[in-house]
Design brief:
The complex is a heterodimer of chains A (about 600) and B (about 150). By secondary structure, chain A is an alpha+beta fold. Chain A has 21 helices and 10 strands. In chain A, the strands form 3 sheets. In chain A, strands 1, 2, 6, 7 and 8 form a 5-stranded antiparallel beta sheet that branches. In chain A, helix 2 (about 45-65) packs across helix 3. The longest helix of chain A is centred in the last third of the chain and has 40 residues, at about 550-590. The model of chain A has no long low-confidence stretch (mean pLDDT about 85). Chain B is built from 5 helices and no strands. Classes of the chains: A alpha+beta (about 600), B mainly alpha (about 150).
């Protein structure tokens, strides 16, 4: 169900505006009707957004730096510290980038000098001072000419990776030109010095990383700073949503709140001396949506939100698809063992992480429990247990159970189609109520006609004794529903228009219904293919394990565990998604759900 | 008859191979998109994983089809008749082709969803729903294989 909302209109003197807004924020119940722009583009808001980006960036960097192995104790949150961190982290990062650059240069030089060995460049200078020059060359080994050794006094230093490193000792440069090979430049620092340099650079980098890790203990401070900036942004947005009146002296603000909280809100606002008016929403208002459901239906709200929220004056379909979804999930998974597994895992998780879980996650776990239980019971229909067939066992309990609930594949096939017909007809009933509620009784008539027609067909097909197909009674019913279908499908338009539209409607209905019902075959096919895959892994585990007393069982267990882990993942994913499609496409379409509501999110302090 | 069995196994081969190839392509297409999108939004890896896994089912359906013929219907024996062999071949061909193409197309839908999530659009639920549209036809093909099998077994 959608909670009833009230519209609040506030009129505030411009000087009191900010104080009033912070009061409103402390109250935390009013959804302010903001304009669509996410942030206003004045300078203050833009700098806030920039600040938020910086903070988030900093947090990302620190999160990466966090020492995950040793659980580092976090420092208590301090908002000032959070803002300081931006510059500190930035400084460290800049230093790191600089070091990285130096390291790259040093590594390059080291790689250049490494083949020549470790020597002091000063010696080269001394030699050249005494009249001899040493030239360094690298050539592919195939091009090296041993004659050079006598001609140019070449000395091979090293042969590596089909390259020859050699030096030539000469008195003048002219000889070298004769050689026709380009000289290699040698860095003016020795190898050992360069090695020392890279080591010390790496050391400094490590120091910086350590600093960063230490800083990451301040992440909570960043979190509060982010919240602070976010709430400032929201505040600015709400502030800019007010309309100026009476020469900018008055501010007009509109908001929404659930009817249930109306008294609380009025009392609070009256204590603050604010002028406000409460009214009911008008049909054209864009009212925010707040769900108000019982405990069971509440669990399915996240699924409903994945698609779209209903419009305010529309029927919320969550309570109506929830039981179907539960059964569909069970049929698609269709394995007693997997259902039990999901149920146990979510139960254990709910018990052990009771304290740390947020309310949302706890709801999710309860949902998984329910869906697991549903898969357990639906699995009993076919009797699959981790791919084994429990009804093959000759235990009296199972045989008794089998005689009561067992359905073979053909029956499962029919069951899934029947469920489809039931859900679609149910959707049509909802469509009638939805139309009556939104537009008036006349608008529901054509759908009532369709519903009666379809039900009468089903009855006379199944129970020809009560109502023979195309007998007098049946023909009368068909006639009456045909009148509704043909002449009441778009009230207000003329007769011929109605008739023409009705034909188009009929075409859509017939082709659509066929496709919609067939779409429910997936319930059967998913359940069947899931159980086949599970049994495949059982036969693999039995067949592929080596004939060895120790190794055999180990390999069998491994295949069993890995195989079933895969099937559980794939089947659960399918069993989660496919019923969702049946809900959102087949069911929502037949219930004429249009959706598009905005979520109720009150203006409040982020905590 | 040996030729009958030959035809049947040809069908089985096509069914497993084509649907398997389709799934391999499908998960690769979405997987590639996921790696690219991780660069922009690494916090959504869970979403990407789920979407990447979706086109993986077709290959499993092909395999499940083989097991149906082998274990449930038990037609893959030397005593197989010509009609049974033709049924296995036809069913296998249908499952294989539909699996191949639907998995590739599904992979593309998932890849687009992944790219959009990477850019910060919250479309995980929408992509899930749209991505199972192509898969329906692979499921229908599997149901078809089941019906064909039960008709001739």
């Amino acid at each position: 169900m959608v909670a009833k909302m009230k519209k609040f209109t506030f009129l505030v003197f411009y000087k009191d505006y900010e104080v009033f807004l912070s009061d409103l924020r402390d109250l935390g119940l009013i959804h302010v009707a903001t304009n669509d722009k996410v942030v206003s583009d004045d300078e203050a808001s833009l700098s806030l957004v920039a600040k938020l980006k910086q903070l988030q960036e900093t947090k990302k960097v620190l999160n990466k730096a966090r020492d995950k192995k040793n659980d580092q104790t976090l420092h208590p949150a301090d908002i000032e510290r959070g803002f300081q961190l931006i510059d500190e982290v930035d400084g460290i990062q800049q230093k790191k980038a600089l070091l990285q650059q130096q390291l790259q240069v040093a590594t390059k030089e080291r790689d250049a000098i490494a083949p020549w060995g470790d020597f002091d460049p000063q010696i080269l200078k001394k030699i050249s001072d005494s009249g001899y020059k040493i030239h360094f060359f690298v050539v592919p080994s195939s091009q090296y000419n041993p004659e050079w050794e006598s001609k140019f006094d070449a000395i091979v230093i090293k042969q590596e990776a089909s390259k020859t490193y050699f030096v030539a000792v000469t008195k003048s440069d002219t000889l070298i030109d004769e050689l026709g090979i380009e000289e290699v430049k040698i860095p003016e620092v020795s190898l050992s010095k360069l090695n020392g340099l890279t080591d010390s650079l790496k050391d400094e980098m490590r120091q910086l990383e350590l600093q960063m890790t230490q800083l990451s203990a301040d992440i909570p401070s960043l979190d509060v700073a982010i919240k602070q900036v976010e709430s400032e942004i929201t505040f600015a947005r709400v502030k800019s949503s007010g309309n100026k009146l009476a020469d900018d002296k008055l501010m007009l603000l509109q908001g929404w709140a659930p009817e249930d909280n109306m008294n609380e809100i009025s009392q609070y606002l009256e204590s603050k001396n604010a002028y406000f008016e409460i009214s009911d929403p008008a049909p054209e208002d864009d009212v925010p949506i707040k769900f108000k459901n019982n405990k069971f239906t509440k669990l399915f709200e996240p699924i409903a939100e994945m698609y779209m929220l209903p419009k305010y004056n529309e029927i919320d379909l969550t309570p109506y698809f929830a039981p179907f979804y539960m059964i569909f999930f069970g049929l698609s998974l269709g394995d007693v063992g997997y259902g039990l597994f999901l149920f146990l895992v979510s139960t254990v998780a709910a018990i052990f992480m009771r304290k740390t879980l947020s309310a949302n996650l706890r709801g999710m776990l309860t949902l998984v429990q329910i869906l697991g239980a549903s898969a357990f019971f639906c699995g009993l229909l076919t009797g699959g247990f981790f791919g084994f067939q429990i009804y093959d066992m000759q235990l009296p309990v199972f045989q008794k159970l089998k005689s009561i609930v067992f359905l073979d594949n053909n029956q499962m096939f029919i069951l899934s189609l029947v469920l489809g017909v039931v859900q679609i007809l149910f959707g049509m009933i909802l469509k009638v109520f939805n139309r009556i509620r939104q537009f008036g009784f006349v608008y529901g008539l054509s759908t009532i006609g369709w519903f009666v027609l379809l039900v009468s067909m089903i009855i006379s097909a199944l129970l020809p004794k009560i109502m023979p197909m195309f007998g007098t009674l049946h023909l009368t019913i068909i006639g009456i529903s045909a009148i509704f279908i043909l002449f009441f499908n778009s009230p207000g338009k003329n007769l011929f228009m109605n008739f023409g539209l009705a034909l188009w409607d009929t075409y859509n209905m017939v082709t659509g219904l066929l496709g919609d019902v067939l779409s429910y075959v997936r319930l059967f096919a998913l359940g069947l293919s899931g159980s086949i895959l599970a049994s495949v892994f059982n036969s693999l585990a039995a067949g592929m394990s080596p004939d060895n007393v120790i190794l055999g069982p180990i390999v069998a267990a491994l295949i069993f565990i890995v195989g079933h882990a895969i099937t559980i993942f794939m089947n659960t994913l399918g069993a989660f998604v496919h019923p969702m499609r049946l809900t959102f496409v087949e069911f929502y379409k037949n219930a004429e759900f249009s959706g598009g509501g905005k979520k109720y999110s009150p203006f409040r302090k982020l905590s | 008859m040996d030729t009958n069995l030959l035809l049947a196994y040809l069908g089985i081969g096509l069914m497993i191979a084509l649907s398997g190839i389709g799934s391999a392509y499908g998960v690769t297409i979405s997987g590639n998109a996921a790696i690219g999108a991780l660069k922009k939004n690494e916090s959504a890896f869970g979403n990407f994983l789920v979407l990447t896994a979706l086109p993986g089912t077709q290959g499993l359906y092909g395999f499940a089809g083989y097991f149906m013929f082998q274990n449930i219907f038990g037609v893959l024996t030397p005593q197989i008749t010509a009609i049974q062999a033709a049924a296995v071949f036809g069913g296998g061909l249908a499952m294989g082709l539909v699996g191949l193409l639907s998995a590739i197309r599904q992979g593309q839908v998932c890849a687009n969803g992944i790219a959009a999530i990477g850019q910060g659009h919250n479309v995980f639920g929408n992509t899930l729903i749209l991505a199972v549209f192509p898969e329906l036809y692979a499921i229908v093909a599997l149901a078809g294989v089941f019906l064909i099998g039960s008709a001739v077994a």
